[in-house]
Design brief:
The structure is a single chain. The protein is mainly β and 124 residues long. The chain has no helices and 11 strands. Strands 2, 4, 5, 6, 9, 10 and 11 form a 7-stranded mixed β-sheet that branches. A hairpin with a 5-residue loop joins β4 and β5. The radius of gyration is 13 Å and the shape is globular. The termini are far apart. The mean pLDDT is 96.
């Protein structure tokens, strides 16, 4: 079983940057795809970004393309989300997740383990 702990959230102003980290324990995540999702107040959880086990391929939601970058360091059992040019509409709780067997990277149901989330708040 994999345990995930997100960190790096906080309160920033529009245009600033944050780097989220997702540290895994209990199992190595180097064989698994990983994803980041977010849930804004009053909204459904939505896909943000995903990365293959090797890090060779990445995918992004349209609303973060060009601003966010997902990466991973399998030696550290950690996945990152670099968020630049943040906007107030990026305010949400951000979650990382492990995809062991699921096929679609875009659906939360494809992911097997989730972290507790980290709050990101962007002020205008």
């Amino acid at each position: 079983q994999v345990q995930l702990v997100e960190s790096g959230g906080g309160l920033v102003q529009a245009g600033e940057s944050l780097r989220l980290s997702c540290a895994a324990s209990g199992d190595t995540i180097g064989s698994y795809g990983m994803g980041w999702f977010r849930r804004a107040p009053g909204k459904e959880r939505e896909f943000v970004a995903a990365i293959t086990s090797s890090g060779g391929s990445t995918w992004y939601a349209d609303f973060v393309k060009g601003r966010f970058t997902i990466s991973r360091d399998n030696a550290k059992n950690t996945v990152y989300l670099q968020m630049n040019a943040l906007k107030p509409e990026d305010t949400a709780v951000y979650y990382c997740a492990v995809r062991q067997r699921g096929i679609s990277i875009y659906y939360a149901t494809s992911y097997d383990y989730w972290g507790q989330g980290t709050q990101v708040t962007v002020s205008s």
